[in-house]
Structures are given as C-alpha cells and as structure tokens.
Amino acid sequence: MKRVFIIVTMFSGLLNLFGCNRQGAKAGNDKDMDAILASVEAFKKRPIHKELTKSILDGLPDDQLEQAVYDNISEIIGEDYENELSNVKKLTKGQKAIFSTWAVEAEVNNGGFNQFYFNSSGQYGDMAVEGFETVDATKHAELMREANKIYASIKKDLEKFDDGTVESFSESYEDNPLNKLDDKYYDLDKNESLWGLKVKYIREHPEQFTQK
Predict the structure, then answer these.
(1) Do residues 146 and 191 make contact, with C-beta atoms less than 8 angstroms apart?
(2) Which domains does the chain have, with CATH numbers?
(3) Please, what are the averages of pLDDT over each run of 10 residues along the chain (212 residues)?
C-alpha cells in the first residue's frame, strides 16, 4: 500500500505540545522548551556509524544503544526502497529483529496497527513476530500474530481505501477490527519492557550487530 502518512516523531510531538502553550507560558515552561530544543539538536547531530564494533557498542549508554543499531542498519540497507524487504532479509537475525520491531513501534505508536499495515511497513508483519520472539518479548509476539491474522482477513476490504489520499486513509479506520488491538499494544510495556529486552539482547549478542 502507498505511504500517505509521515510518522510524527516524539520530538515533533513535544514541540507541538509546547508550541500550543507558548503564549503566556511561565519561565519554567521556557526552560523546558529550551531543553527540548537542545535535545532535538543533539539528536540531529548524533553520530551515525556506518560500521559498528563491539567497543562502540560497549561505550554506548543503554538509552542510545537501540538507536545506534537502527541507524547502522539503515546505513547497511541504504535507500533502495523498492528492494528494501529483500535487503532486510539479508541481515542477521538480531538486526532483522531490531528493524522489524522498530517499524511496528514507530507505526503503531503513531497511528495504530491500521497505519502499520496501510504503510509499506506492513510487509514486516511476519518478520516482526519472529523479531519479538528473538528478544524474548513473548507478549508482543502473541499480539503481533493476532494483528497479522486480523489483517489477513480484511486485507481485500482495505484495498478500496488505497488511493493515496489522507481522506481515504482516515476512512479506513472506521469499523476496523485492528483498532481494538491498539490499546492492548500500548498496555504491553506495563508487564513486558520491549526497550529493556532489546537492550539486553544487543548487549548479550554483540556479534549480531557488529561488522568488525
């Protein structure tokens, strides 16, 4: 399906929130806004490693580890979007796990499972199940299987909305059985920290993510 939605990042969401409250804001809010802007600039200027080594991974704090791995994977597969899936399939088991589950997180947290399947990220549905299992996120894997099953049953019905317009994309949410899974997904981290499990897996399997 065509990609008609651009994922709204955490940073842009925060900026919009503070932008709406900027008028008449107190000095404390100004400081918070400055801190967010500084974080955005730091994120933009983060080092992106074309090659990762164990020493680089070991030197990264936990809160930067997954991003560094994802950035490295993006460097490896490049911008050949027509062949992206075949290129991703050539990655290591660990890299495929991080890449596919990242796609689920980004899309579902932004627009639910419907957006995940509506966009090209939907091609990673099956890989994400294996990815969640790889990092021992069993509850996420179970929910992903359920989402894949529901999507398979309604895929043909959703094709009528695939005309490249935001209007049709919005209409595709109406009476969509995937919607009921979104809150379940958002609640998963209460019992199963996906981020923590990913960090643990990367730390324990550095050979899956290094090129030297």
Answers:
(1) no
(2) 1-45 (no CATH), 49-208 (1.20.1420.60)
(3) 38 45 60 82 87 97 97 95 95 98 97 96 98 98 98 96 94 97 96 97 98 83
